[in-house]
Amino acid sequence: MSSYLVTGGAGFIGSHLVEELVRRGQRVRVVDSLVTGKRRNLEHVGGVEFIEGDLAEMPVAVKSVAGMDYVLHQAAIPSVPRSVNDPIASHRANLDATINMLVAARDAKVKRLVFAGSSSEYGNTPTLPKREDMPANPLSPYALQKNAAVVYCQLFTKLYGFETVSIRYFNVFGPRQDPGSPYSGVISLFATALLAGKQPVIYGDGEQTRDFTYVANVVDGVLRACDAPKAAGEIINVATGGRTSLNELLKVMNRIAGTNLQAIYKEPRTGDVKDSQADVTKARALLGYTPTVSFEDGLKKTLDWCRREAAAIAS
Ligand code: UD1
């Protein structure tokens, strides 16, 4: 049995990592500030140690890493537009907390830290799909913070021999993604709108594309990154390798939900990337990763969960 610290473990992706680690019989500790995470996301998982705290405070970081073999650093304020509106808060959560975690984990002799990077780091690239060796071109404070954190991770491996792996996520979706704010992920917002019989909003013409990735694929990639021998110091895309426009996404979701709701189109968002699609060759080579849940199956699972949630709230 190994011990894992999941930072942001009460959040969407973090709670799925916790669930899988517990299923595999590992020892799990969660640290979460509960700013965007929710205790409710972990209610169904037993035997998890929970620390409530802000990792931008060094004593919280030090307490959290004590005795841990691995750190899965997921804690973040994950929204592009939120970072445009409030760059200081997102800097603190995404960058100050990360440097604390790196120092604390290095000093506590953690075996490896796996960091949640972002496809937004690439910005608009002249070619698709996006490969890890393409230069970063951040278009928002969020993308810049994630990129600086990834470069910090690499530097800690080079400078101190502390093993880090940065996994770049591409539009992760699935159960427990919170639809409760205008900053929420687009699939959670579309699902909530369709199931309530409301028209969803599309920012721009809806022809922007994303490599929408079901959360179980990301969990698989991150857990592989903990012990893949050649992954230390690397940046690795974990996604599906496909891309879907928002107009197409809405069409597929309408079909699955049995609805026919048209979008309301609004001005494009500042800091938005036009197209996002991952090259997953490196993940296959270094992690033995292959996406196991397709985009459409993931959407079905997500809509089923949203339906059950809506029913539970109504009853
Ligand atoms: C998302 C993640 C970010 C992650 C990145 C990786 C969220 C909230 N953000 O950013 O953490 O690092 O992927 O690629 O999960 N849109 C609409 N209508 C809506 C909401 C959004 O049209 O109601 C549009 C946005 O303008 C954007 C696209 O949908 O073009 C996706 O937006 P969003 O789900 O917020 O994700 P990203 O900004 O791509």
Task: Give a written overview of the molecule.
With 315 residues, this protein is α/β, with parallel strands linked by helices. It has 2 domains: 3-172 and 212-241 and 279-293, Rossmann fold; 186-208 and 243-277 and 296-314, UDP-galactose 4-epimerase, domain 1 (Alpha-Beta Complex). Helix content is 41%, strand content 16%. It is built from 10 helices and 13 strands. The chain has helices at residues 12-23, 58-65, 80-85, 87-107, 141-160, 186-195, 215-227, 246-257, 281-287, 295-314; strands at residues 3-7, 27-32, 49-52, 70-73, 112-118, 164-169, 172-173, 201-203, 209-210, 213-214, 234-238, 244-245, 264-266. It has a 7-stranded parallel β-sheet with strand order 3-2-1-4-5-6-11, with helices on both faces. A two-stranded parallel sheet has the order 7-10. Strands 8-13 form a two-stranded parallel ribbon. Helix 1 (12-23) links the parallel strand 1 (3-7) and strand 2. Helix 2 (58-65) crosses helix 4 (87-107) and helix 8 crosses helix 10. The termini are far apart.
Properties at a glance:
315 residues; alpha/beta; Rossmann fold; UDP-galactose 4-epimerase, domain 1; 2 domains; two-stranded parallel sheet; 10 helices; 13 strands; binds uridine-diphosphate-N-acetylglucosamine
